[in-house]
Amino acid sequence: MNISLAGMNDLPDIKAMYARVIADMARRGLDIWDEVYPISVLEQDIQQKRLYVLRQNGIMAAAFALCDKSAGEARVQWANQQAKAVYLDRLGVDATMAGTGWGSQALSCAQRIARQMDAEYLRLFVVDANLPAIHFYQKNGYQRANGVYDEIIDDALTLREYGFEKALKPDG
């Protein structure tokens, strides 16, 4: 496994991977991501040096963004509101590699990088209807914060999101 910051030359492969993730989510009735999001923010993620990609033998397997802030961060009650945190966004594992442990490997890499950024917590938001993701994060030791973040997309769509966090220990 190889992890690196994404570069602009990676963008076509990243977009193709996310397109497969979106198609798989739609097949499973999880209409959370679409052709607009997260595809529309990937270039900005690359420019801001916050998008990481994982490859196996040169093949892109997963990607995620690590952000200093989140729009919903003040909407839930974290275990330690004052602690330095990094926010995991847009974690995607290629649909062809689902169930092979790549999600957990990506999460471990995100935690390691967040620790290197001196974060005490890795935090994230999950749409309430995305039960597979909720179970995945709980299985990996994430705790749900109190409260809910209602992300208003437009007049017809509001996503109800739960905050999850994990304390980052220097050794784990």
Question: What can you see in these coordinates?
Answer:
With 172 residues, the protein is an alpha+beta fold. The protein has one domain (2-167): Aminopeptidase (3-Layer(aba) Sandwich). Helix content is 27%, strand content 31%. The protein is built from 4 helices and 8 strands; from the N terminus they run E-H-H-E-E-E-H-E-H-E-E-E. Strands 1, 2, 3, 4, 5, 6, 7 and 8 form an 8-stranded mixed beta sheet that branches. Strand 4, helix 3 (102-116) and strand 5 form a beta-alpha-beta unit. The longest helix has 17 residues, at 11-27. It is globular and about 40 Å long. The relative contact order is 0.16.
What are the key terms here?
single chain; 172 residues; alpha+beta; Aminopeptidase; eight-stranded mixed sheet; 4 helices; 8 strands; globular
Topology overview:
Blueprint: E1 2-5, H1 11-27, H2 42-47, E2 51-56, E3 59-67, E4 85-93, H3 102-116, E5 121-127, H4 131-139, E6 143-144, E7 149-154, E8 157-167
Parallel strand pairs: 4-5
Antiparallel strand pairs: 1-2, 2-3, 3-4, 5-8, 6-8, 7-8
Structural class: alpha+beta
- CATH class categorisation: Alpha Beta
CATH architecture: 3-Layer(aba) Sandwich
CATH superfamily: Gcn5-related N-acetyltransferase (GNAT)
What multimeric state do the chains show?
Answer: single chain
Beta-strand share of residues: 25-35%
| Helix and strand run | EHHEEEHEHEEE
Return Rg in Å. 15 Å
- CATH topology-level fold name: Aminopeptidase
Low-confidence stretches: none
Arithmetic mean of pLDDT: 93
Number of domains as seen in the coordinates: 1
